[in-house]
Design brief:
2 domains, alpha/beta, six-stranded parallel beta sheet, binds adenosine monophosphate, 10 helices, Pantoate--beta-alanine Ligase, Chain: A,domain 2
Length: 284
């Protein structure tokens, strides 16, 4: 396994590999890798001749009062995990390498970025699409792997790839969870022991609504209320809810009233100052 820091070097490597007929899979991450990230890498390993993992804490996708300065890092541990999965290249650019002082371009998906996470984080997705476009141009992948945990992000990337005609197949990977159901996330490391235990309530509440759905409760408002009630049932609920919404899983539009299309129940909560997101498909 090779670690590359330079943009020029990785692009030259990618060009050469593509010319030699090798297929490339990209797994973009911000590091502090967990089994969710590793699942993406395993899927990539099974598909392509060469697997490139990028590790970059992308400053432009963080808002002014977010956790950019304390985002967890463990490069040595990450490199060991990548090696164990059989990754070929780990791309670890510096901020300066991706955003030199003269940098002034951005890529924006304009509509489906306004709702859900985009409502509370208005500059977030523009930061994501800009860095992912750069990573695509630097690593020239045939396929790129993204987690369904960030459901809206996956939809935004798919939109961008279609709209801008990137010749890249986007592959979504199901959410990997802890044994108590909590969706794995690098940010879970922020949670103190008590809140970490309480965090399992998020998946429990989503699962409760999914069960109701399977039993025939198909009104989106009723299901949203059921999630809220379950989260807030304790006298002092630890959760501050940012949103609980039901969206059409294909075109990411909100469903009000009766659910008649494949749908996804999405949630964002704050727990002890940590923002957590999760989602669950509503299927029979
Ligand atoms: P991040 O490092 O948090 O930016 O995540 C990098 C990639 O890993 C994104 O495509 C995420 O959606 C994906 N990912 C993060 N957590 C999980 C998880 N628990 N299960 C599946 N994919 C995940």
């Amino acid at each position: 396994m090779q670690q590359i820091e330079s943009s020029k070097e990785i692009q030259a490597f990618a060009l050469e590999s593509r010319r030699a007929g090798k297929s490339i899979a990209l797994v973009p991450t911000m590091g502090f890798l967990h089994d969710g990230h590793l699942e993406l890498m395993h899927k990539a390993r099974a598909q392509a001749d060469l697997v490139i993992v990028s590790i970059f804490i992308n400053p432009i996708q963080f808002g002014p009062n977010e956790d950019l300065d304390r985002y967890p890092q463990d490069l040595e541990g990450d490199l060991n995990k990548c090696r164990a999965v059989g990754v070929d290249i780990v791309f670890t650019p510096t901020r300066q390498a991706l955003y030199p002082e003269s940098f002034q371009t951005s890529v924006e998906v304009t509509k489906i970025t306004k709702c859900l996470c985009g409502a509370g984080r208005p500059t977030h997705f523009q930061g994501v699409t800009t860095v992912v476009s750069k990573l695509f141009n630097l690593t020239l992948p045939d396929t790129a792997f993204f987690g369904e945990k960030d459901f809206q992000q996956l939809a935004v990337i798919r939109r961008m790839v279609t709209d801008l005609s990137f010749p890249i197949k986007i592959i979504g990977v199901p959410i990997v969870r802890e044994s108590d159901g909590l969706a794995m996330s690098s940010r879970n490391a922020y949670l103190p022991t008590k809140e970490r235990k309480e965090a399992s309530g998020i998946f429990a509440a989503l699962s409760h609504a999914q069960n109701l759905y399977k039993q025939g409760h198909k009104e989106s408002e009723e299901l949203g209320q059921a999630v809220l009630k379950q989260l807030g049932e304790k006298i002092e609920s630890p959760f501050q809810v940012e949103y609980i919404k039901i969206y059409d899983a294909w075109n990411l539009t909100e469903i009000s009233g009766l659910i008649t299309t494949p749908a996804v129940l999405l949630i964002a909560v704050h727990l002890a100052g940590t923002r957590l997101i999760d989602n669950l498909l509503l299927e029979n």
